[in-house]
Amino acid sequence: MGSTVCGFLKQNNIIFLRFFTILVLSCIPDGTNLCSNPSFDTPTIPPHSSSSSIPSSLKTLTLDGYFSFENLKHAAKDFGNICHYLPIAVLHPKSVSDISSTIKHILYMSSVTKLTVAARGRGHSLQGQAQAYQGVVINMESLDRPSMYIENGEVPYVDVSGSELWINILHETLKYGLSPKSWTDYLHLTVGGTLSNAGISGQAFRHGPQIDNVYQLEVVTGRGEVVTCSDKENADLFYGVLGGLGQFGIITRARISLGPAEKMVKWIKVLYSEFSTFSNDQEHLISSNNSFDYIEGFVMINRTGLLNNWRSSFNPKDPIQASQFSSDGKILYCLEMVKYFNPEKIDVLNQDIEKLLSELNYIPSTLFLSEVSYVEFLDRVHLSEIKLRSKGLWEVPHPWLNLLIPKSRILDFAEGVFGNIVKDNNNGPILIYPVNKAKWNNRTSMVTPDEDIIYLVAFLSSALPGTDGLEHIMTQNQHILDFCAKAQLGAKQYLPHYHTQDEWQAHFGTQWETFVQRKSAYDPLAILAPGQRIFQKAISIT
Ligand code: FAD
After folding, report:
1. Does ligand 1 lie within 6 Å of residue 125's CB atom?
2. Per-domain residue ranges for the chain?
3. Which molecular-function annotation in GO is an example for this chain (predicted)?
4. What is the per-residue pLDDT across 292-324, written as a single tens digit (0 to 9) for each?
């Protein structure tokens, strides 16, 4: 069977060109919202003509791992808990060759089936991006993970499986006094999942997102080929895959850049009542030398009593003044800063922090400080996860909206949205912080507004059970998007989600042509990551 498939692939480069034409023509064709019904959806286009023969055909493959064909509901679920598409099978690969063989087999079967393949990392997608309706979901976590290789030389790095969790990488690299430089706020995500998007957190202003901190990848393309790629070797595939929404290949290994790790962090929060003062200070900090190591921020609308919550883990610099502080019902903006440090050098640290804080214009009585370990800080969201899980609130729908807004329009955005479209943030945090794009590599597939400084604005809402929360939040999200479009803010979605080809094309803008060319080169039948709904599986004409 293996040699037949190889022969098929070699002979058919011409056919691939024909597939390309079909691929472009068959980008998601209309405005149907496939996720509008939060139950197990059935898209209108049948994925393949002879579904009963598919499981038996997959069973003929010789694998190190195995397929399961029953009890697949978990593969139709993600953190968003809004879209649910049942696959026909889940592959539990043990080896990279299991993934390659499966993709090659599906290519071979392409004249009789529209079967697609979705890699599933931790399934923390929001809108079904790691799902495949009646296709094959690859449970990446079952891939055998060789122990991580850490190069501790002049240019330190770690080699990890694409299915590795960032939290495990943190623990392993710390044994060598090293750690990755760029993070996400939550570390129980896979390398393959975050590198398919970007991986943005409060370190990205200095180091770029996670996709800019990778030296090399091993990828199984949509042709089933296993390819090593880097800036020097197969660079087009390398940059295509980084931020490529899983469209060009499945990441099976990544070489991630490391830097020295400190033991502790000083964690500081201060408040502002004027958005422009807050954002000026944020922009000042991300442009300063010897600044903080992490800079984020969030918005508090109608959130009285929040300062009291902080007191459990943060100490006010001036307890009396802090206890007298009142927001008078105003919207507040919290600047959150962290400096990493070695406890032996605490004096130098305190001087540095004093100097940095003296350059800011926050409300003096609202300075709160805390000291925690580096690991505790980086793994902070996991604590919230444990609490929410214990109350059954982790599994609720998460209609999140993440936007990138150019600096030149952030004041218009804040004025139009905070307090006007969004009247409270009782459904979840609203993060807002700028990043310095000069530090970012513009060769990846990731799309950003075209300015040197851009803001990430993340509406991280949860729809609580027994309320009309989901509908309300989704309507509110749409109002925010409509506002951005009407005011021509030049905003881009992060972790994007669209329904039509026109929307995807507008999202990618001048990068669309390259994206389509890469798709035709590396996944000509549009087998991979169908849950992103960018391309539709091509039909083989033989
Ligand atoms: P999945 O949901 O499993 O997959 C995501 C996409 O990648 C799918 O299209 C899938 O097919 C594809 N994919 C998965 N594995 C691979 C692979 N090995 N190769 C190729 N494609 C693959 N993001 C940030 O940038 N910053 C944050 O601070 C941040 N915080 C978060 C906090 C929480 C609580 C959650 C739930 C998410 C957060 N995210 C953040 C978003 C997160 O980065 C993405 O949802 C990411 O895709 C999740 O990784 P995953 O392993 O669960 O991916």
Report:
1. yes
2. 57-141+518-532, 149-260, 264-493
3. FAD binding
4. 999 999 999 987 666 667 767 888 888 887 877
CATH architecture label of 57-141+518-532: 2-Layer Sandwich (3.30)
Active site residues: 124, 185, 296
Q: Indicate whether 325 pLDDT > 90.
A: no
What is the Å distance from ligand 1's center to 353 Cα? 34
Residue written as token pair 């998460």: 398
pLDDT digits (tens, 9 = 90+) for 257-298: 999 999 999 999 999 999 999 999 999 999 998 999 999 999
Q: Give, using CA atoms, the residue closest to atom 47 of ligand 1.
A: 193
Q: How far is CA 197 from CA 2, 240, 443, 500, in A?
A: 33, 11, 14, 20
Strands (E) in 18-143, as ranges, are 66-68, 89-92, 117-120, 136-139
Is CATH 3.30.70.3270 the classification given to domain 149-260?
A: no
Is the Cβ atom of 540 under 6 angstroms away from ligand 1?
Answer: no
For the chain, the residue count is: 542
Name residues whose C-beta falls within 8 Å of residue 349's C-beta, 6 or more positions apart in sequence: 266, 339, 341
Output the residue whose Cα is nearest ligand 1's atom 43.
194
pLDDT tens track for 21-31: 344 334 443 33
At the topology level of CATH, where does 264-493 sit?
Answer: Vanillyl-alcohol Oxidase; Chain A, domain 3 (3.40.462)
DSSP 408: G
Give the global pTM.
0.92
